[in-house]
Write a structure and sequence with these properties.
The complex is a heterodimer.
Chain A lengths: L1 E3 L8 H15 L4 H7 L8 H15 L29 E8 L9 E6 L12 H5 L5 E2 L2 H13 L4 E5 L7 H10 L6 E5 L5 H7 L5 E5 L5 H8 L4 H15 L1 E7 L5 H15 L4 E5 L20 H14 L2 E2 L2
Parallel strand pairs in A: 3-5, 5-6, 6-7, 7-8, 8-9, 9-10
Antiparallel strand pairs in A: 2-3, 2-4
Chain B lengths: L18 E4 L5 E4 L3 H10 L4 H6 L9
Antiparallel strand pairs in B: 1-2
Classes of the chains: A alpha/beta, B alpha+beta.
């Protein structure tokens, strides 16, 4: 057996933007709020134009970085680094056509940005995901050319991922600005972004492909060194479902069916019952998994069967 | 040996990468599957449904 590891608009969208802009003013310096309002969704304005304006706002926000939910508040423009250790300039460690994602998204042209705000010890791309200096500076024009070629060659989507792309919102939005306006764009995220990041992302991506990794804060803290995980992810998923198409992924971890998958499945069934869910059982003990006795193996057949039973009992809208 | 600057790949010229893990029970886990590698795996195991669906020509991928 071979396993693969791995639109609608709210009617009150503008009102919500107005409410959320208070957050922007509170947590940012200078003229960010004004820039963001200017770059807000406008009927008939091409996505690439909005993305270019949003990218400028996102770059200004690096002066008091609160793009992810850690909200470190460091000035990345002058070399300060928060928990993700990222600077002002993004780098990419991979850009290629892939067919390992959800069937309705593939083939996709995947662009992976280095660095992440989480520290998942089992990360399948731990090296470049933990190191924002891995890879090379974003070759914007070359990337855009490769993406266009991939689309012409039959790619259905263009996916921006990481690491975690939220910490590199300026570069991610610059990439969006360089892509065709009619390309179907996928935002592959750990769903640990801030309200500011969501505001900057509003209307930019057709699909949010979001991980819901842990079903409780204790596992999140122990395995990914992230506090308050469940609340933040739930908040992001609910927002994403209102503002774009949402697909949720859960990577089943060995020994975490009851503590992680079951509560995730039950919450999705209760709060996002129509959302597409991809349950992945191809966990592999990568990176620093050996630091944890529970993560030194793959998922057993019985665990996998139990997880699928839970999914079916919850009536989840499962996709491959 | 210290790499020469000329040895670095040009901007945007990444080699294509797929990772796979062969398990003792015969399962194969794959990450970052490229179309070319999917084609290779299909040749190795034509009966695997997951790979068959991912090795279709781009115009025939299921929705």
């Amino acid at each position: 057996m071979i396993s693969i590891v791995q639109e609608r608009r709210s009617p009150t969208r503008r009102e919500k933007l107005g409410v959320q802009s208070r957050d922007v003013r509170d947590c940012s310096k200078g003229t960010l709020k004004r820039e963001l309002q200017r770059a807000g969704p406008e009927a008939g304005v091409p996505r690439s134009t909005l993305a270019r304006e949003r990218a400028a706002a996102a770059r200004a926000a690096l002066a008091d970085c609160r793009l992810c939910a850690h909200e470190c508040g460091v000035n990345r423009l002058v070399g300060e680094a928060g928990l993700c250790h990222a600077g002002a300039e993004a780098r990419i460690f991979m850009a290629q056509a892939e067919v390992s994602d959800e069937l309705e998204l593939i083939p996709t042209f995947a662009i992976a940005l280095s660095g992440c705000d989480l520290r998942c010890d089992f990360c399948i791309t731990g090296g470049p995901s933990w190191n924002p200096r891995a890879g090379e500076p974003v070759p914007l024009e070359i990337l855009a050319g490769q993406a266009r070629a991939a689309l012409a060659d039959g790619a259905r989507t263009i996916m921006i991922l990481g690491g975690e792309p939220t910490i590199h919102l300026p570069a991610a939005l610059e990439i969006v600005a360089a892509l065709p306006d009619d390309a179907k764009l996928v935002w592959k995220t750990n769903a640990h972004g801030s309200a500011l990041a969501r505001e900057l992302l509003d209307g930019m991506f057709d699909i949010w492909l979001a991980d819901f990794k842990f079903g409780n804060d204790a596992c999140a803290q122990r395995l990914a060194k992230v506090p308050d995980y469940v609340r933040v992810v739930r908040e992001n998923l609910l927002w994403a479902n209102e503002h774009s198409e949402l697909m949720v992924r859960h990577l089943l971890m060995p020994g975490h069916v009851d503590c992680c998958w079951q509560p995730v499945a039950e919450w999705l069934a209760a709060e996002l019952p129509a959302v597409k869910v991809n349950l992945r059982s191809g966990f592999w003990p990568a990176w620093h998994s050996a630091r944890h006795s529970d993560l030194r193996r793959t998922v057993s057949n019985s665990e996998s069967a139990q997880a699928w039973r839970i999914a079916r009992n919850c009536g989840l809208n499962l996709v491959e | 040996m210290k790499p020469d600057a000329n040895d670095k790949p040009a901007a945007g010229k990444h080699p294509l990468t797929s990772d796979l893990l062969l398990l003792p029970d015969g399962r194969i886990l794959v990450h970052n599957l490229t179309p070319a590698f999917a084609g290779l795996l299909k040749e190795l195991n034509p009966d695997d449904e997951q790979i068959r669906l991912r090795s279709l020509p781009s115009t025939e991928h299921p929705t």
